[in-house]
Specification:
By secondary structure, the protein is α/β, with parallel strands linked by helices. The protein is built from 8 helices and 8 strands, in the order H-E-E-E-H-E-H-E-H-E-H-E-H-E-H-H.
Length: 253
């Protein structure tokens, strides 16, 4: 998929690529997301492979990831303990960090909590603090609470928001959405980026359908509604944030 992303980016002036291993691919697991279903192969970070891939299009590769901690799609804990999974994901994440820093690339960090409430954000924040230096990147598709967001901001990271922020709270479990709403209300405007996670996580107006990149407009509209801010000013801010997050992305140049 990294190779395909680079191929696509090289064919279009206004598309760039990120490369890396999703954390759910570290161990073989069955993954089902909307219309997608597959078994991951169990892959570590092959530095030689990614060095060769980067060399093919150094001006079109702007990021490393998604990489991070995923405690949702994991092997059966009876077969592989969750602590073993976490340790291996940490090791692979640090390989991504080293590669990104060697090439001046931005990190796209994935954090997804476990089905039984295991906190990927707690694990990631601990890993980042142990690095003892700030990294350049974004917490992709943010679903955490305000306290976690504040920790990421202290670490110098941007926060990425998707169509999830347009969803109403679940009647059976409203807390996660209500906590995310608090983040949307309070996050500094100069640390926000917007995204879609296409083809997943379509905004509420088309929820359940295939998401497309242009639906990022709905994410922007939700921020404008919640924060009561001028649309043009907010969009200008988002562009500036994106340029700072991905300095190799030459938007409008």
């Amino acid at each position: 998929t990294s190779n395909f992303a680079v191929e696509l980016a090289t064919q279009h002036d206004d598309i760039w690529a990120s490369i890396g291993n999703h954390p759910s691919h570290v161990f073989p697991v069955n993954i089902v997301e909307q219309d997608s279903a597959f078994t991951s192969r169990g892959e570590l970070f092959d530095t030689d492979y990614y060095e060769k891939l980067f060399a093919t299009a150094p001006n079109k590769i702007i990021g490393v990831g998604e990489t991070g901690i995923d405690l949702y799609h994991i092997p059966d804990p009876k077969e592989i303990p969750i602590q073993t999974v976490l340790e291996k994901q940490r090791e692979v994440f640090l390989d991504h960090v080293a590669f990104a820093e060697n090439h001046g690339l931005s990190l796209i960090i994935h954090c997804r909590d476990g089905k039984n409430g295991e906190s990927a954000h707690d694990a990631m924040i601990q890993i980042l603090k142990e690095l003892n230096h700030q990294i350049h990147g974004v917490i992709h598709c943010y679903t955490g609470n305000l306290e976690h967001a504040k920790e990421y901001l202290k670490l110098g990271l941007y926060i990425g928001f998707t169509g999830i922020i347009t969803y109403p709270p679940k009647k059976t479990d409203p807390k996660p959405q209500l906590e995310l709403n608090e983040v949307v209300k309070n996050i500094p405007l100069n640390r926000i980026v917007v995204e879609t996670d296409s083809p997943y996580l379509a905004p509420h107006i088309i929820r359940g359908q295939r998401n497309e990149p242009w639906y990022v407009e709905e994410v922007i509209k939700e921020f404008i509604r919640v924060r009561d801010i001028d649309q043009t000013e907010f969009e200008t801010q988002i562009i500036e944030n994106t340029k700072k997050l991905f300095p190799k992305m030459k938007i409008g140049e």
